[in-house]
Automatic annotation (TrEMBL):
GO terms for cellular component: gamma-tubulin complex; microtubule; spindle pole. Its main location: cytoplasm. The keyword Isomerase does not apply. This is Gamma-tubulin complex component. It comes from Hydra vulgaris (Hydra). Pfam families: GCP_C_terminal (PF04130). Belongs to the TUBGCP family. It comes from the Eukaryota. Gene3D superfamilies: Gamma-tubulin complex, C-terminal domain (1.20.120.1900). One of its GO terms (biological process) is mitotic cell cycle.
C-alpha cells in the first residue's frame, strides 16, 4: 500500500443495486462507465490533496522571515504553484464539462427526445458516452489520459519525496535546505516537460477539429498563456 501511487484509491468504486425496471436504463455497463469517471475524479482529487500537504510542509519550513526567504524554499514554492495551477484548471474543466455542460444537455434531451423507455435508455447511454468522451476516457484518448495520470504520479512523487526527509537549517546563513532538493527539482522538470507535451497534443487536436470540448480544456489549462509561452521558449 503506497500512498504515492496514482492508483492508491482505485479500490474504491461505486456500487448500486438497481431494481427492476430501473435496471433497463441504469445497466451494469452504465455502472462500469460511472466508475471510470469516478476513478479519474479520485485520482484528480488525490493530486490536489497531495499539493495541500506540500503547501503545509513549505509553510512550516518558512517558520521565520530568514527561513522564508531561503532560495530552495522559494524555488519549491514556485514548483508547487505550477502543479497547483495544472490541477486546479484541469478540475475546473472536468467540473464544467461533466457537472454543467453534459448534465444540462442530458436534461434537455430528457425533455425533448424521451417518449418511451427505449428513448430513455438511449438518452442515458448518450449522456454517459459524452462524459467518457469529454473526460478523455475513451479508447481513442488513451494516450492523453495516460499522460495526465503520469502527471498526477509526478505530483504524488514530489509530495512523497518532500515528506521523506525533514528540512535542515544552515547555521551560517539562517536558510533552510532540503536534503532531496536536487531530486525534487528533477521531478519538477519532468512534470514541466509532460505538461508542455500535453498542451502541444491538445493544441493539435483542437486545430484538427477533433473533440471541440478540448478547446475549453486548452483555455483552462493555458490560463494567462502559461504553456503557450513555455512551448514557444522551448
Amino acid at each position: 500500500f503506497n500512498v504515492s501511487e496514482v492508483s492508491v484509491l482505485d479500490f474504491l468504486e461505486l456500487r448500486y443495486g438497481v431494481p427492476w425496471p430501473c435496471n433497463i436504463v441504469v445497466t451494469e455497463n452504465s455502472i462500469i462507465k460511472y466508475n471510470k469517471v469516478f476513478s479519474f475524479l479520485l485520482r484528480l482529487k488525490k493530486a490536489g490533496w497531495s499539493l495541500q500537504e506540500v503547501w503545509l510542509n513549505l509553510k512550516k519550513a518558512g517558520y521565520s522571515r530568514k527561513a522564508a526567504s531561503s532560495p530552495e524554499l522559494r524555488q519549491l514554492q514556485l514548483f508547487r504553484h505550477e502543479m497547483q495551477h495544472f490541477v486546479n484548471n484541469l478540475e475546473r474543466y472536468i467540473v464544467n464539462q461533466i457537472l454543467h455542460v453534459s448534465w444540462r444537455e442530458f436534461q434537455q434531451d430528457l425533455r425533448q427526445k424521451v417518449h418511451s423507455l427505449d428513448d430513455l435508455h438511449k438518452c442515458h447511454v448518450n449522456y454517459l458516452n459524452r462524459i467518457i468522451f469529454r473526460s478523455l476516457l475513451s479508447k481513442n484518448a488513451t494516450p492523453v489520459y495516460k499522460l495526465i495520470t503520469d502527471i498526477f504520479g509526478l505530483i504524488l512523487k514530489f509530495e512523497g519525496r518532500l515528506r521523506l526527509s525533514p528540512w535542515e537549517n544552515d547555521k551560517q546563513t539562517g536558510y533552510v535546505k532540503h536534503p532531496f532538493f536536487s531530486k525534487l527539482k528533477s521531478i519538477h522538470e519532468t512534470f514541466k516537460h509532460c505538461t508542455e507535451f500535453l498542451f502541444s497534443i491538445i493544441s493539435k487536436l483542437v486545430r484538427g477539429g477533433y473533440q471541440d470540448h478540448l478547446d475549453d480544456l486548452l483555455l483552462q489549462v493555458n490560463f494567462n498563456d502559461f504553456y503557450t509561452t513555455a512551448v514557444v521558449k522551448s
